[in-house]
Design brief:
Its EC number is 6.3.2.9. It is an enzyme of class 6 (ligase). The protein is α/β, with parallel strands linked by helices. It has a nine-stranded mixed sheet. A six-stranded mixed sheet has the order 15-16-20-17-18-19, sandwiched between helices.
């Protein structure tokens, strides 16, 4: 088990437990730090609380009193806790550093650390990169916003094992020294403004992924995104751009028939089974990260000729009587749905709807050109019906939920149609998570068999 060799703090407040807080607290305690834990939800009877007490943690439960900051040198916060929390506001006044647990994970990884972020495509790119390294017999673990907690993975890394982290803006905002050897930034679009308050705050959190990189590191970025291209001019790392539209002498690109890393051909496009131009961007980024980390072309090809998508992210579910069903429940905003629709050329019946956040869904209209039908559900179903009417969609129907929408769509479809769940909305009006919504879709499709 790895040790924190250079962590310069001894008195630590862990604010909020859940998975990341629990893992961080345990790691800190095992490394001899004095840890105070403050959690509003858990009680003394909780198994998690009892485990931490047994390791020597001081627990403050049930509320967030400002007294928890007494004697504290650094705060490790749960990524989901707002910076408007009174304890964090007071910590900032006292100039106490505030981090998320990926800062601790970073301190544990002396070998290769790969960090991947972006508004869309993080999970797919992280999964592809990890799989390419595994297929190339490169020892690797994956963690962060996907799979296990980063600190837990880092603490248990084997010698010479790489760590691939999927990183959210919430995690990246809480960094001080965090420095991946290979950083990937896919795209930055408007998101999570309820947390970050402004688009600029959100973007700067994302750009933290390369702030501390040096000339020894690599920064893989989307050269088709003008703002990202402008931002990376301040980076000190070696720049590795990727593009689906132009040839790059020092990057990863495609000429429409093959994928190239620098001047080396890696794979023919026709062999790649993952659909969508947005996924081609993810593939290029993953190829760059994997190649820099030691992947072989053979390992990369084995992944790209078999990988059909991450669950709930434009995932091919099944072919039922000639209809192709795709689960894109992770599409919780319009941009994700626009990209999903762009992945298909054949007639498509779109299943969409969910939590009404007040968005102007008419932005979807230009992307409905090959949508032959809409089945809407949830709080936004009337809004989406109006959008479909303006877009002259021939079939406009609604359903009570995703399960019923599958049945309705199938009844109005024809052979070779795509039936696509890509809601453009969060799931919380009817489902606890987008994963639950996607699972309901998958179950409903299988009932048609």
């Amino acid at each position: 088990m790895r040790k924190l060799e250079n962590f310069p703090y001894q008195q630590v407040l862990v604010l909020g437990l859940a998975k990341s807080g629990t893992a961080a607290a345990k790691t800190l305690l095992r490394n001899g730090m004095k840890v105070r834990v403050n959690d509003k939800q858990l009680s003394e009877k909780s198994t998690i609380v009892q485990d931490l007490v047994a390791l020597g943690a001081e627990m403050v439960l049930g509320s967030h009193p400002l007294s928890v900051l007494e004697g504290i040198e650094i705060v490790v916060k749960n990524p989901g806790i707002s910076y408007e929390n009174p304890v964090l506001v007071e910590a900032m006044k006292r100039k106490i550093p505030i981090v998320t647990e990926i800062e601790i994970a970073y301190q544990l990884v002396p070998e290769l650390l790969i960090g991947i972020t972006g508004s869309n495509g993080k999970t797919t790119t992280t999964t592809l990169t990890t799989s390419m390294l595994q297929e190339s017999n490169r020892p690797v673990k994956v963690a962060g916003n996907i799979g296990i907690v980063a600190t837990e993975a880092a603490e248990n890394l084997a010698e010479q094992e790489a760590l691939v982290l999927e990183l959210s803006s919430f995690q990246l905002q809480g960094t001080i020294a965090f420095r991946p050897n290979i950083a990937v930034i896919l795209n930055v679009f408007q998101a999570h403004l309820d947390y970050h308050k402004t688009l600029e705050n959100y973007k700067q959190a994302k750009f933290n992924i390369f702030r501390n990189q040096t000339e020894e590191d690599f920064l893989i970025y989307n050269a088709d995104d003008d703002e990202i291209e402008e931002q990376v001019k301040t980076a000190r790392a070696k720049l590795i751009p990727f593009s689906t539209t132009k040839k790059l002498e020092e990057g990863v690109w495609t000429d429409g028939t093959s994928v190239y890393f620098l001047d080396e051909k890696v794979i023919n496009l026709e062999k790649i089974v993952l659909v969508g131009n947005h996924n081609l961007e993810n593939i290029l980024a993953a190829v760059a990260a994997a190649k820099l980390a030691g992947a072989t072309n053979e390992g990369i090809e084995r992944v790209l000729t078999t990988f059909t998508g991450v669950k709930h992210r434009l995932q091919f579910v099944d072919k039922v009587h000639g209809r192709l069903f795709y689960n894109d429940s992770k599409a919780t905003n319009m941009l994700a749905t626009e990209k999903a629709l762009a992945a298909f050329k054949q007639p498509t019946i779109l299943l969409a709807g969910g939590l009404d956040r007040g968005d102007d869904l008419s932005e979807l209209i230009p992307h409905f050109k090959h949508v032959k039908g809409l089945v809407s559900f949830g709080e936004t179903k009337e809004k989406l019906e109006k959008v479909a009417e303006e877009a002259n969609v021939p079939i406009i129907l609604n359903a009570e939920n995703v399960e019923e929408a599958v049945k309705v769509a199938y009844e109005h479809s024809e052979e070779n149609d795509v039936i696509l769940l890509s809601p453009a909305c969060a799931s919380w009006d009817q489902y606890r998570t987008f994963e639950e919504r996607g699972d309901m879709f998958i179950q409903a499709v299988h009932k048609l068999l």
